[in-house]
Amino acid sequence: MDSFVKCGARAVFFALIITQCFFLAAYPVTYKDNSNWYVLAVSFAPAVIVWCCLIASKAKLRWMFYVWDLYVFFALVPNIVVVFEVVGDSIDNDRFLGPNTLKVVLCMTPLLLLLLLHTADDSDRSDDHKELVSKLSYQMAIDLFDVVDMIDIVLEEYEHDIGIPKGFGTGMIVVACYTLLHSMWQLAENKLAGGEAKIRFRTAIFRNIVEIIFVNLPFLVIRAVVFFAYGKDGSIFIAKNGIAIVLSLLDIRHLYGSR
């Protein structure tokens, strides 16, 4: 039964990543009326090919981390950059490929992460792996939705012109893209071997410090500015960013205390 569920989940993962691939490529194709932009779909090939090879052989959890790295670095971030650089504020709410569709497509990302982690062959074969997958699923999925919400603010500016300067909006996209890249670091701090999961001390310490300085603090400041200066309510994620900073500090303290 478990293998049947995993096979189904893998089929969903494949369908979602292919869907996201072509929808993201379709934005510059549609708005620039140039089908050559479909070449962007090739950027998903490294992640998809490696994932297929792993599924056909041994889909170990530690190898799934590399699939995520390939997906984020070569596919997701470059496609987001292209969409906002090429299409930008010309995105039209009246078109099917408008801001709402883009948000739905980006919201596939947390689900892709969950499916990727939970469908590894050894994701549930030890208590350490179960605990790690559960922890990463919770933490990273929330961070990914945080990114989507940040991008949503920029899209809302395109739709309703709430007054956010273009440069400030560009900065928001840059921070959002960095946060996606930072998720690779969150996986890299985990060392998996023999069914055990251990934390790489220095990697985890630096990851938490960088996450405070370059992810949650900028998100907190940006949302506060947008809230007070432009009237865009972001109180829930403002609280989330504040809590995340506290949790990172506590994590650093715990890491030093457990040495």
From TrEMBL:
In terms of superkingdom, the source organism counts as Eukaryota
Indicate whether Transmembrane appears among the record's keywords: yes
Q: What are the protein's UniProt keywords?
A: Membrane, Transmembrane, Transmembrane helix
Entry keyword Magnesium = no
Family to which the UniProt record says this protein belongs: Belongs to the TMEM121 family.
In its UniProt entry, what is this protein called? Uncharacterized protein
Transmembrane stretches, start-end: 12-31, 37-56, 63-84, 96-117, 209-230, 236-256
